[in-house]
Amino acid sequence: GDSVITVQLSEEDKVEDDVVFYLVFTGSTVQHCTSTRKINPGSLETISPGHDCCETVKVALCASREGHPVLVVAEESFQFVQDEAYDAAQFLATCAGNQQALNFTRFLDRSRPPAADVDFLDEKVALAFRHLKLPAEWNVLGADQSLTENIPRETLLHFAVRLGLLRLTWFLLQQPGGRGALSIHNNEGATPVSLALERGYQKLHQLLTEEGAREPDSWSTLSHTVHSGDYSVKHHRGLGVYLLTAEA
């Protein structure tokens, strides 16, 4: 989800300015409708929806004009794939509270990927986390809430801070248990806050310690989502397009 889609119109479809184009994605359990913006008379642009599963869906380009019936201009198939970022987000989500798995992730710290790779990883995994269907009882600290904060242990927040993942850290802070993880020490006595300080991650330390710290730049800062029952509406401020998602 959240990739930019460009639609190229054929000569006969280039029509007057009062025609509104939109895309309808029909999956097995969810349907999405996205508005578009015109780049030029022959090209449209929109955002791909975040889908609930890996499948091929039918996508229809529709045209609407006041006083006229809706016209289906073209139809095509569109494949949603499960990529490495989604796999990583799923793995991390199931790792919450699993000390063996969280200790295993520490090997990434030894490889110290280049800054550009870290930024790419941060953006993709944080975005994938946003599209995961997390259980209602999911918690950053894991399922066993009987553990007290005094027990030294690794948390997902330690993982995100250790690698310098700004966007993922922000996302985790907004989830149940996220703020509570700030004060938890691991076996070396480090908290996520002290880790950020020790590694010289100034922006990350600011994010963890400042009240009202703003979200790092990402797609989510360009969009706003409103949920209502089985429906959600997302407004992408960057492109000025809207996305309506409805569960079938």
UniProtKB/TrEMBL annotation:
A cellular component annotation (GO) from this entry: actin cytoskeleton
Gene Ontology MF annotations: MAP-kinase scaffold activity
Example GO biological process: adrenergic receptor signaling pathway
Listed name of the protein: AKP13 protein
